[in-house]
Design brief:
single chain; alpha+beta; Jelly Rolls; six-stranded mixed sheet; 15 strands; globular; Cupin-like domain-containing protein; RmlC-like_jellyroll; Cupin_8; JmjC_dom
Length: about 350
C-alpha cells in the first residue's frame, strides 16, 4: 500500500529497520538499544492482525469477542478537526471524554467510516488485562523477564501531538496504519512544549502543528526536524521507542488498533521524575536568582553528580537517604515527603 502523504515532514530520515529471529534475539536487541528501530511483521501471526487485514469489521468483531462488559473511557473530538486531539483557542481540550460500552463505541465508529468530516473517536491506553479476556494470551510479544504494562489504543483517524513517556515502549500496529515521527530527548526545547499540568493525557505536548508547522512562530522546530525520524507502519509491524524519546503519532485509516508495552529498567518503587519537576516548579522556579543558582548547585551535588565526595565523610550506617536507594529507604523518603506536603 502506498504511504500516506507525510506533508512538511517528508524529508525526515527513516527509522532503521531490523530483523530478529526469536524472543531471545529481541531481548538482546532491546537491551542494547539507545535509538528507535522498527521490526516489520513481528506480530504478523497475531489473530487480531489477521482479522484486521480481513476488514475493520472483522477486527472489531474479534475485539468484541474478548472484551469485558464494563465501561470503556472514550474521547470524541469535534467534526472537521482532522483527527487532531489538541487544545482549543482557550487552551481547553478540543475533545470530550466519557464512558461507554465497547459495542456502542464500535457501532459509532462503523457509522462514521468513510466520512472525511466525521468526529474523532479514540480509546487511549486501555489496559489489556483489565478490559479483555484472552486477548493478551492470543496476541502478545514475548519480552523475556520484563514485566510490561500492556495497553491497547483504538480509534478512527487521529493525530496525537508529540510527547514523551518515562518508560521504554514497544508499539505494535494490530490494525490500520500508523505513522510515528520521533525526536531525541534533547530536542524538547525545539518542540515548543505546552503546559505540564494542563495536558491531553498527562504529559506535556508539542504546540507545533506537524501538518502545518509555522516556522515564523516556532523557528527552532526547523532544528528539531534536522534530527527527526519517521516511519509508517502496517499491521504486524513493531516500533521500539526508547524512554523519553518524543513521538508524534497518527492513525491513518478509518479504524486503527495499536498494542503497546511499557517497561522501565529501574525498580517500580523509585519515584517519578515528573513529580520532582512539578514540585521544583512550585518550590524553586520563582526564587531570587542567587537562591536558584544555589539550589541548582545542590541538585547537581546530590542528584546528578552524586559521587564519593557526597558521602565519604559521613560514617557508614548514618548516611540515610544518601546511601544507594532501596525499597525501605524509598518508603521512608516517600512518607517524609507526604508529611511535608500535607502541612
Amino acid at each position: 500500500m502506498a504511504e500516506a502523504d507525510p506533508g512538511p515532514l517528508a524529508g525526515l530520515a527513516r527509522v532503521p529497520e531490523e530483523q530478529v529471529a526469536d524472543a531471545a534475539a529481541l531481548d538482546a536487541r532491546l537491551r542494547g538499544a539507545d535509538a528507535p528501530f522498527v521490526i516489520r511483521g513481528l506480530a504478523a501471526h497475531w489473530p487480531l492482525v489477521r482479522a484486521g487485514l480481513e476488514s475493520a469489521d472483522a477486527a472489531r468483531d474479534y475485539l468484541l469477542r474478548h472484551h469485558r462488559d464494563r465501561p470503556f473511557t472514550v474521547s470524541v473530538g469535534q467534526p472537521g478537526s482532522g483527527g487532531r486531539l489538541f487544545y482549543d483557542d482557550a487552551m481547553a481540550m478540543n475533545f470530550r471524554t466519557f464512558d461507554a460500552k465497547l459495542p456502542d463505541i464500535f457501532a459509532r465508529i462503523a457509522a462514521f467510516a468513510g466520512q472525511p468530516q466525521a468526529p474523532t473517536v479514540y480509546l487511549a491506553s486501555i489496559d489489556v488485562h483489565q478490559y479483555f479476556d484472552g486477548l493478551h494470551a492470543a496476541n502478545h510479544i514475548d519480552l523475556g523477564d520484563r514485566e510490561p504494562l500492556a495497553s491497547i489504543w483504538i480509534g478512527t483517524r487521529t493525530r496525537i501531538a508529540a510527547h514523551n513517556d518515562v518508560p521504554n515502549n514497544l508499539a505494535v500496529v494490530a490494525a490500520g496504519r500508523r505513522r510515528f515521527t520521533l525526536f531525541p530527548r534533547e530536542q524538547f526545547r525545539n518542540l515548543y512544549l505546552g503546559p505540564v499540568d494542563n495536558t491531553p493525557a498527562g504529559r506535556a505536548i508539542s504546540m507545533v502543528d506537524f501538518h502545518a508547522p509555522d516556522l515564523a512562530r516556532h523557528p527552532r522546530f526547523a532544528e528539531a526536524m534536522a534530527h527527526g525520524l519517521t516511519v509508517e507502519m502496517a499491521p504486524g509491524d513493531a516500533l521500539y521507542i526508547p524512554a523519553l524519546w518524543w513521538h508524534h503519532v497518527e492513525g491513518l485509516e478509518d479504524f486503527n488498533v495499536l498494542v503497546n508495552y511499557w517497561w522501565r529498567e529501574t525498580p517500580r518503587w523509585l519515584g517519578q521524575p515528573q513529580e520532582a519537576l512539578n514540585h521544583a516548579l512550585m518550590a524553586i522556579r520563582d526564587l531570587p536568582p542567587d537562591q536558584k543558582a544555589h539550589w541548582r548547585d545542590m541538585f547537581d551535588y546530590y542528584v546528578f553528580q552524586n559521587d564519593d565526595q557526597v558521602t565519604a565523610h559521613v560514617p557508614e550506617g548514618g548516611r540515610g537517604v544518601l546511601d544507594p536507594m532501596t525499597p525501605e529507604l524509598a518508603s521512608r523518603l516517600r512518607s517524609y515527603l507526604l508529611r511535608a506536603l500535607s502541612r
